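Thread: quick sanity check before group meeting

JM: Hey all, I'm pulling together slides for Thursday and realized we never actually wrote out the predicted structure for the chain we discussed last week. Dropping the sequence here so it's in one place. If anyone has concerns about the input, flag it before I start.
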Amino acid sequence: MNDFEVPEGIDVLRVFCGPDGRHGNALGVVRDGRRYPGNESRQALARKLGFSETVFVDDPERGTVDIRTPGLRLPFAGHPLVGAAWLLDLEVLELPVGDVTARQDGEFTWITARPEWAPPRTLERYASVAEVEALTEPPPGEGWLYVWAWEDEAAGRVRARAFPRRHDERGDSRSSGAGARTGGVDEDEATGAAAMLLSAELGRALNIRQGRGSQILTAPAPDGTMEIGGRVLLVVAS
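JM (edit): ok, ran it. Output follows.
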């Protein structure tokens, strides 16, 4: 995030925190979207905040939300919806792609969505956790890449890292604020949409450790939908 005071009326969360409460992806939530009524004002605020995503709440009762990156509007994204559902205590979120249901289960907040709503990701399996952790720069290529390896295949435990790289749907990660810099690497700390796609591809529930120590849980349903769950912490209250 840029070095400035968060404007009034905006909550800052961390979504998909690890068991120790650390890490997770930062998220801004504008509780009253009417304060930023147009596309230009919303994009300007998203750029100013510098988070990978910012959520504008247009109707808190119906759960109508608008998700913005610093460069554009997204029809769906995982961690913004988990965060908004937790903060607003909503059971349904209305999106352009369809309704997303949500539930609380102890320390975890879950949303249910369809994998086809997620933007395309390249999912690349590595032979070992050590290979995933040894990356010191994004692997060559363009487009959004999710690298992963089994920590414990029988238990569904996965080690993953995500690299927006260049020319993905969020724009240039080095200039848009879409990726966090971790050890000199442009990297997304916790990616619900990619976790959902990986779970759909493997056809099983997963417990994913991503980035520096974020945790994402997934659970496929018989009707083709997917649950994504994680911990949410409030960093700045409006």
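AS: nice. The chain is about 20% helix and 40% strand. Residues 39-49 form the longest helix (11 residues).
JM: adding both to the slides.
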